[in-house]
């Protein structure tokens, strides 16, 4: 796990009391927390009683930290958990609940107290409601049908350390309303009879719990805070991971065990975009001043997600963009993209849960040739759905297990299954999020309009958390009606399947239909599928609208058929069919369409590819009817004009030129001066290979396959035998005039000067950036404000060549 410059600065900061480290998902917040332990322990534990504490929210995260850091190998940048925990009691990594419970045991001698189960709570609440009713008429909300609602509200009161009815009547209560017993939503209004009744019910309910020697963590937390303890364990340095998830009572507990000294520190690590718990204090936009800490000038930010690919990040951030509540939060960190090439998330919708899980089974079977099963995780909003998925897939002989919170086995050769809440803080190479259904997420039943927005924001954050757990691949799925959150994800960042440009089915207004003059019935159900494919052929594959035909006649002797869509190209002096598309109405099946397509391809001898779909199933085949991953994208060679014109830009102080070649005779070229278009005669030339693509954006696996050749003047080269070309397929150098579709001319060499544009290899992946060496670091700098520089050690970078020229299509 490599540390970058930003992380190292935060790790090595001199302690100065309280500090806030805000960071987006995947920015390395937990990495910073664990490595800062070592720094504080070695440099700022000056007295015998000095200790360091890392507080985690739950056991899963604590165990995951151990799992990750036991695998660390680089002793210069890293420190192992074993080393941390063998420092003679100087370092502790504890969950907040274990801290509270330990403190409680020291101040309470009663060993017969038990934690109330959900059944215990429900039973006692029912009894409390009955006892309150005996005192006189209560508000309608005090009803057995609302028992779970009332239990949660009472636990929230304790979590916020509200002691009196007067406090409760005045406190802002976002996200709490009920319409279970009434036709219209009813908020928990301030200074209301409802709040008065709930508070009285709370006192009865907790008296019953005490009488039965039962407790729960919020009650226990209050006792621990209000009881004196001799010889209480305290810490000179405390780091609170996921501090946005803690309740006010838990945060006050942490303050109680903090030992202020001139060199002590308390570090809050947070990301309010991942605040997913209704009882959390800071995650609901409350200020740190409510805890007695002024964070003015005391906060630092990690805004780059190093965990997920650029494509997954774009999809997750497009969902986050719809959350106005979050964006108005003063502690919200706007994420920045980091160059990491990958696949866009795959989204599919199904008719039933069984159909969805069958697809998940097939997908995992396909992935098992690339990934270990332990690197794959299925997540769901609710535990019952996760359990149903695990049970069904296990019956289908797919090795999978519910991730054990108390004793997780991250390396067992089984697919992990867990909830969105329990995956928080973890990461997997492949994540499959299932049952993203309306009514499941968001679940906003029984909420008023204002409170619905608050809960919807929490639920949106929950999906965002799930999406940002994926390192390499993300699969999203639903059945029946998809969640509204699926529509909130920008369609540009979703795909129908892996290695296919096609985006998932989306609705198109009839007023925006293409080729309407050729369509017999624009209201036909199958027309929605055809219009989707027409749009995709233009938007995702780059074909021109004039290259597309609908209802294309196909003659079979005296019988005439009509192909749904034909893509034509210009070949040997005429337009000919090149791609055939057959569509059916949604979920109608494609067996008949496949037979029809095969028949049409037999009759249309210039057709090389066909696509068959009903919006749910998809098949793409070549001329031999062998299934392939995708259709070819448009290129200019498909159009009549065979003359290709480029502007030549030199990076070696040569004048700009116009470069022309004939696509049918690429070795025949002409050169003209840019300013006058006067021909430049008698140039000595050499064929230069185009070896593949280079990402002006994210690193891409080096591609040595020769895709094309250009005949170039020798004067454009410094070492002709070491010259090659690459096509640009990313946008991170666009402000330097290097755009998608341009060709860079490269001199192969292993060194570069500051400011030169280079082809750099990072772990056998190639990227195009401006090179800058600063002291012991190398910066690979993009020329696009959307991307951040890549900061590396010199031994992490291999220069494959410097850009000496550019060909830009005219």
Question: What key phrases describe this protein's structure?
Answer:
Rossmann fold, LexA/Signal_pep-like_sf, DNA replication, 5 domains, serine-type endopeptidase activity, 6-stranded parallel β-sheet, 19 helices, 810 residues, alpha/beta, single chain, 13-stranded mixed β-sheet
Q: How far apart are the first and last residues' alpha carbons, in Å?
A: 45 Å
Q: Please state the CA-atom Rg, rounded to the nearest Å.
A: 32 Å
Helix content: 25-40%
What's the CATH class label of the largest domain?
Alpha Beta
CATH topology heading of the largest domain: Rossmann fold
How many helix segments?
19
Unreliable residue stretches: 72-81, 177-185, 698-702
Class computed from helices, strands and strand pairing: alpha/beta
Provide the CATH superfamily of the largest domain: P-loop containing nucleotide triphosphate hydrolases
Count of distinct structural domains: 5
Summarize model confidence as the mean pLDDT: 88
Number of strands: 34
Beta-strand content estimate: 25-35%
CATH architecture of the largest domain: 3-Layer(aba) Sandwich
Molecular shape: globular
Biggest β-sheet: count, sense, barrel?
13 strands, mixed
Keywords: ATP-binding, Autocatalytic cleavage, DNA damage, DNA repair, DNA replication, DNA-binding, Helicase, Hydrolase, Isomerase, Nucleotide-binding, Repressor, SOS response, Transcription, Transcription regulation
Protein name: DNA 3'-5' helicase
Organism: Pelotomaculum schinkii
InterPro entries: DNA_helicase_UvrD-like_C (IPR014017), DNA_helicase_UvrD/REP (IPR000212), HSDR_N (IPR029464), LexA (IPR006200), LexA-like (IPR039418), LexA/Signal_pep-like_sf (IPR036286), P-loop_NTPase (IPR027417), Peptidase_S24_LexA (IPR006197)
